[in-house]
Specification:
The complex is a heterodimer of chains A (381) and B (272).
Chain A lengths: L12 H47 L2 H5 L3 E2 L6 E2 L2 H32 L2 H13 L5 H50 L7 H28 L9 H26 L2 H9 L4 H12 L1 H17 L2 H6 L20 H8 L9 H36 L2
Antiparallel strand pairs in A: 1-2
Chain B lengths: L1 E2 L18 E7 L4 H14 L3 E7 L2 H10 L4 E4 L5 H9 L4 E10 L2 E3 L7 E2 L1 H9 L16 E5 L4 H9 L11 E3 L2 H10 L3 E4 L10 E2 L1 E2 L6 H6 L5 E9 L7 H6 L5 H10 L8
The chains are: A mainly alpha (381), B alpha/beta (272).
């Protein structure tokens, strides 16, 4: 510390020593806490790996990853976890298919369409979804939703198709129609006449397709309501608050200047949202999607209660109307009987599954990190 | 799920036989749990100095606790396995079985299902996936939805032994975590078949005749109903006569004990 003329501003040696020590103490304390949470991650990896490796030593890799026969309690025991991996993947994909379109549309609506006052009310209401305990979701899925799917599955599915595919196809018809009119400009120079011909044709074709699909679904009989579809929808709803709130934050962060700039260039609101705001906040939206995926893949209680827990690959593999089993539910369900005493493979196989889950979420995290970095570079931030 | 029943502390009591602050720790099957809890309440009402705790964590966990020496009584809905006996013997523990009651495993279907009767062979084929439609056993043209307890439970092991004859249940079968969940799934699914303890049969589900025998307390007791099992309490060695543990473990032989067993929906071992 350099001494200046004004001695009043100079601390006494003791005081400055005190300050230095307390700064050091505070810093090292905070550093300790930070490193503790980092170490926790390493310890989790270490302990799971420690108990997972004996399984692969005992049983090898081939059966675990390629066999479809899962009989951990049989004698001899069989540990084919392929259907369980497929089940986990199917449910996660299903949850993403529900949560991502819904969540991003809701986020766009919240950030760019709704007036501020309404948004202040709607956003917390959506976030309440995250506060409901997962066992309550599971109970709902098992006691209310599963019987509903069994008794009125056809009606639910066909209305769902109309609600989801209807708007998407309508948009598609408009875009396709415009493109066709452009292409046919040589043959039919008047765009109004071309439109009068093309739009009814495309519209009827789409309606016929939708009718065909919905009548086929209407006749469908769902024998068991505890299936991949049930769980996918519920998990999608559970992942919704994460997706909505993270991507809404990202859209908000795009900033007022960007929006005003876009309007100033003569863009409409739709063009501003689709061509400017969403590309600008794509990294945040991707992060939201990945967080949603993690929520869906790690959820245990709902899948244990309502997925049926049948360790079989559905036929065909994308058939979401059949019961499936997931990694998390298997770990939760088989824990009680599996221990060192009564057979070590059965104990270690659960750790092998836990390790696969951990590795997957680690990779997802890494990927999201890379995506965010790349898109930042592209945007020149 | 852990349920603890704590003894009410009574200020001045004459403990009939028990010494001061005796403790009995019970752990194991969710099926036998209600019996153990009823016995514990009954025993503690008479002997306020004895503190009994009952945890329900599954038959396998009961055996585990016994081997680890963390419980006095392991309640189990299946006999101990060879591996468990061996692990206990290695630690110097001698599990002694006490059969506290009998239980049947009724095969349950939806009340709207016209099927009244199946054979053990047919049930096995249904769970193997060889019979996959109700019309093959005289029912409507509907795909059968098989529902089983998870492989963790004693109920599952009993079913696997008595019905499946150690053959493996087909992959299409759905697994649920409790007897109550089985009943819930069966009563809401017209094409379902499941199995649960005798105490879980009510109007919302239909129990089938198996090999011509309807599951009831009588047919279980006489051994006519083919899918029945004893329920156990295991202790380390036979308890010393006169100790609280001895008194507790013999409650099922008294008239009160048998009434309690019946009230919960199981079948007493002896007729009174």
């Amino acid at each position: 510390m350099s001494k200046t003329a004004n001695t009043n501003l100079i601390m006494s040696d003791a005081a400055s020593r005190r300050q230095r020590i307390s700064t050091l103490l505070g810093q090292s304390f905070l550093f300790l806490i930070t490193s503790l949470s980092t170490f926790a991650v390493f310890f989790i990896f270490y302990f799971i790996l420690k108990d997972a490796i004996p399984f692969f030593k005992l049983e090898g890799f081939t059966e675990f990853f390629s066999s479809t026969r899962w009989y951990p309690s049989g004698s001899p025991a069989e540990f084919g976890a392929l259907p369980i991996f497929v089940g986990t993947g199917l449910v996660t994909l299903g949850a993403v298919a529900v949560a991502v379109p819904l969540g991003i549309s809701a986020a766009v609506c919240l950030s760019d369409l709704l007036p501020f006052k309404v948004r202040q009310i709607v956003k917390p209401v959506i976030e309440v979804l995250a506060a409901i305990p997962s066992v309550a979701y599971g109970f709902f899925a098992l006691v209310v939703f599963a019987p509903l799917l069994q008794n009125h599955g056809g009606i639910i599915l066909s209305t769902g198709v109309w609600l989801v595919l209807g708007p998407i196809l309508a948009l598609l018809v408009i875009v396709l129609g415009d493109l066709l009119i452009d292409k046919l400009r040589k043959q039919i120079p008047n765009p109004k006449i071309a439109g009068a011909i093309i739009f009814p044709i495309l519209g009827t074709l789409t309606l016929i397709f939708l009718f065909q699909l919905s009548t086929r679904l209407l006749g469908l009989e769902i024998s068991s309501g505890t299936n991949a579809l049930n769980v996918s929808i519920i998990l999608g709803i559970m992942a919704l608050p994460t997706v909505v709130s993270v991507s809404e934050d990202a859209l908000q962060a795009a900033g007022r200047e960007l929006r005003e700039g876009s309007y100033a260039l003569g863009a409409t609101r739709a063009e501003t949202i689709i061509k400017t705001i969403i590309p600008a906040s794509i990294s945040g939206i991707l992060a939201a999607v990945i967080l949603g995926v993690m929520r869906a893949i790690g959820e245990t209680m709902v899948v244990w209660m309502a997925s049926g827990n049948a360790s079989r690959i559905p036929e065909p593999w994308y058939n979401v109307l059949q019961p499936i089993r997931t990694l998390t539910a298997t770990i939760a369900g088989d824990m009680g009987e599996a221990d060192h005493v009564t057979g070590s493979s059965r104990f270690h196989v659960l750790f092998a599954m836990a390790f696969c889950l951990l590795a997957f979420s680690f990779i997802m995290n890494l990927v999201s990190e890379i995506i965010v970095k790349r898109s930042r570079k592209k945007l020149g931030k | 799920m852990k349920i603890q029943i704590l003894a009410m502390t009574a200020a001045a009591t004459v403990a009939a036989t028990a010494g001061a602050s005796d403790k009995i720790v019970i752990d194991g099957s969710t099926t036998v749990g209600p019996i153990a809890k009823a016995f514990a309440e009954y025993y503690m009402a008479a002997n306020p100095d004895v503190n009994i705790t009952v945890s329900e964590s599954g038959s396998g966990n009961g055996a585990k606790s016994m081997v680890n020496g963390t419980c006095d009584v392991a309640i189990m809905s299946r006999p101990m396995k060879e591996t468990e006996f061996k692990a206990a013997a290695d630690k110097g523990i001698q599990p002694v079985a006490h059969v506290v009651s009998l239980d049947g495993l009724p095969i349950l279907v939806h009340p709207s299902n016209p099927v009244q009767e199946l054979t053990v062979e047919q049930v096995r084929k249904i769970y193997l996936g060889e019979i996959s439609n109700w019309k093959e056993v005289g029912g409507p043209d509907k795909a059968i939805v098989t529902i089983s307890r998870d492989t963790n439970s004693g109920t599952y092991e009993t079913f696997a032994k008595l019905v499946m004859n150690k053959e493996k249940i087909g992959g299409k079968c759905e697994y649920v975590g409790s007897n109550g969940a089985i009943r819930q799934r069966v009563q809401s699914t017209p094409a379902a078949i499941g199995y649960a303890g005798l105490g879980f049969v009510d109007k919302t589900v239909k129990a089938l005749k198996i090999n011509g025998i309807y599951p009831s307390a009588e047919t279980v007791q006489t051994g006519e109903y083919p899918v029945a099992r004893p329920l156990f309490m295991y202790t380390d060695g036979y308890p010393k006569l006169g100790t609280p543990l001895y008194q507790f473990i013999t409650i099922h032989l008294t008239e009160d004990g048998q009434e309690m067993v019946e009230e919960i929906g199981f079948v007493p071992v002896t007729a009174y």
